[in-house]
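lol forgot to send this yesterday, sorry. struct tokens for the thing we talked abt
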């Protein structure tokens, strides 16, 4: 397979009602710039049958059991050959391929772009010290340079992407952020927004930056929660 500028990876498991919309959002873009990989966790609800309708548009399709979302994403990375890797997982949508920006900025480990949430809010990426306490680089907007060190820690259930971004920042690797274009839509009803996993954020921060920043992170999210409750009361 000849190298493309971008590898787009979708990981999915038993999401028969959502997978087709995600695939459609990707294959409508100019395929001369990207290869498309789908890693399925061994779905048995009809998801695989839908994916097979699009095999002529998919570069690599694998369906087998895995150890979770980040294990599947690591598997996708191993199969990839693009200069940059982007994850548009099931339920999310690709809105724009930032081809010119990636061609003009081939060096950064991350080129990150804005993402629209299903709530209507637009997440603009930031590359500054606040990445030590919260993920300021929306995962669906990140185009990671394909390197040997690009790998997710599968001990984390939902915030291994935050851990990866923190490690890239900590290693003083080059991170580029853009105010546009808007590259992806993120469905906020997924597992990463499940409150029962929220404590994992603080585990990531402590692991990478220690107890002080773990406390700062906890205070930040506590404040955000209070402000949200006040806003709801006022409205």
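and heres what i got for the seq, position by position
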């Amino acid at each position: 397979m000849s190298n493309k500028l971008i590898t787009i990876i979708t990981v999915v498991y038993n999401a028969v009602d959502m997978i087709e919309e995600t695939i459609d959002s990707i294959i409508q873009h100019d395929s001369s710039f990207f290869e498309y990989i789908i890693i399925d966790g061994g779905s048995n609800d009809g998801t695989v049958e839908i994916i097979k309708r699009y095999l002529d548009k998919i570069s690599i399709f694998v369906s087998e059991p895995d150890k979770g979302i980040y294990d599947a994403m690591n598997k996708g990375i191993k199969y990839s050959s693009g200069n940059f890797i982007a994850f548009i997982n099931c339920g999310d949508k690709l809105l724009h391929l930032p081809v010119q920006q990636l061609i003009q900025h081939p060096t950064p480990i991350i080129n990150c772009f804005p993402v629209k949430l299903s709530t209507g809010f637009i997440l603009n990426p930031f590359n500054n010290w606040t990445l030590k306490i919260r993920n300021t680089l929306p995962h669906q907007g990140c185009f990671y340079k394909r390197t040997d060190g690009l790998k997710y820690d599968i001990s984390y259930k939902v915030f291994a992407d935050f851990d990866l971004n923190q490690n890239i920042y900590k290693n003083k690797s080059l991170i580029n952020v853009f105010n546009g274009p808007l590259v992806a839509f993120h469905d906020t009803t997924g597992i990463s927004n499940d409150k029962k996993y929220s404590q994992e954020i603080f585990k990531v921060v402590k692991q990478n930056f220690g107890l002080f920043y773990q406390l700062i992170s906890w205070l930040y999210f506590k404040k955000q929660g209070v402000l949200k409750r006040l806003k709801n009361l006022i409205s």
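Residues 211-234 form the longest helix (24 residues). anyway ping me if u want another try
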